[in-house]
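QA checklist item 7 of 12: single-chain prediction sanity check.
[x] sequence parsed
[x] length recorded as 236
[x] structure emitted
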Amino acid sequence: MKIFNFTLLSSAALFAAFFIFFVEDGKSKIKKYIVSSVIEEKKSDCKYDCSCFMPNEFSKQLNDYLTSYIYKSEKTGVWPSLNVSGLRKKVRRGDLVFVPQQKHFTQDTFYYSYALLTPQTCELMDSICTDFNHRIKGSSVHKAKLIVTSMTRTISSVNRLLKRNRSAVKRSAHLNGNAFDFSFSRFTFHRSLTSCEKMYLQETIAQVLFDWRKRKKCWVTFEKYQECLHVVSRGN
């Protein structure tokens, strides 16, 4: 009888130990899940909270100089065209392709350039825009579009630009059909953007370009006074 009672007590103690272990473990897992959910929610909120990231965190790292890419740009791109007639010849040969308006970016009013790029550069720009749209998905500004402010130029249009813009250069990668610019201060959206939203979008496209640059797909320059991100395809 004593043996039976002892066995019963031992079983009860063992059951209690298991019960406490599983209950406490369950509470611990629930607690971890709640904490994890809160962290993820805060991370999500940080996408739209300017206090969660430093201004120009990625933009200031995009500092490639003309000397870093101009020789490669001239080698892998097209020969500069004197005027529109020269561009048309390159389009007929397939050296340049027309870039139509796309659903995931907007073309600005081009006064000094034309919506033409080398096929590879056109593909690069399209991939970058797709990447940008993917990263802002789920945010309050997920329908915002990048504005492309410049593509291929001619010698004539560069000369006109030089008269108006002192920071412009005569030996430009835009002449080779493998360069394009994104505005970092303006985006297409159905309402006015807050300064925080603009900064979020600016740093998002800057981070996208930083990653593509790190993969050696392009060179990028943050042109502060022109308010654009100058992108040059590496052609590889």
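[x] summary fact logged: Strands lie at 97-98, 105-107, 116-117, 146-150, 179-183, 218-223, 228-233.
[ ] second reviewer sign-off
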